[in-house]
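Example is below:
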Amino acid sequence: MKQKKTNFHVTATHFIMTILLVILLSAAPAAATELKFTTQEFAPFSYDINGVTAGPAVDVIQLICKEMGVTCSFKLYPWTRAQKMVEKGKANGMFVIGWNEERAKSLYFTPPLLMTEYGFFVKESMEMEYDKPEKVKGLTVAVYGPSNTSCTLEKIKDSLGGDLTIDMRYDDESGFKKLSAGRVDAVFSNRDVGYALIKKIGLENIKYAGAHKNLKYYIGFSKQFNDKSVIDKFNSTFLELHQQGKIQSILTSYFLEPAMLQ
């Protein structure tokens, strides 16, 4: 009887330990094998070529994923939907985005990817070089939004005591078309995006009047739906490639300015 009791005790203990091991293994975060990204039509940073998402940010992410030994995939959506996909955990990350406190509550950010700026575009016939907000006082200004860009323009409006009319547009192109036709006085836009749109649409009567704000663009990952160790690995790989000059090489090949890392 004692032998049977001992065998039962050993068997029960082995069973319990096996169950605990299964629970621990299932609870442990699995190593990432694929990272899914969303973005928008945002040339020259990201855009569609025959159904394939392309651009400098895509090239950088692909290089990082390759170095990490994971696959990465990309989907281009309207910007509101692209953000929702990340918020709901249907994608791991999104790009390119500016940093702000509200986004930092829900997103992990990479090191800064590239430098760019917000500024004003006007018609060639307008003799104006922008160097301070007072230069656009009383004007009607088109801007894409809601966005970080439109939020910045709202702050400019506030600094002018409200003496500026904002024409909010749900796409980038329509504002530039209205400016070309003389239906607004200016467009507030990312400089590089503005130049790309002017070239794409073939507008020849618009110029860049000057910068209002320099900014950095990043890649963002959902805090809720990503294992932080995976994002830490992504960021450490980013830094290694930056130190080797490979990320800078990709960006400069697109005539973009890489961010300086301290």
Q: What stands out?
A: Residues 127 and 209 are 9 Å apart (CA to CA).
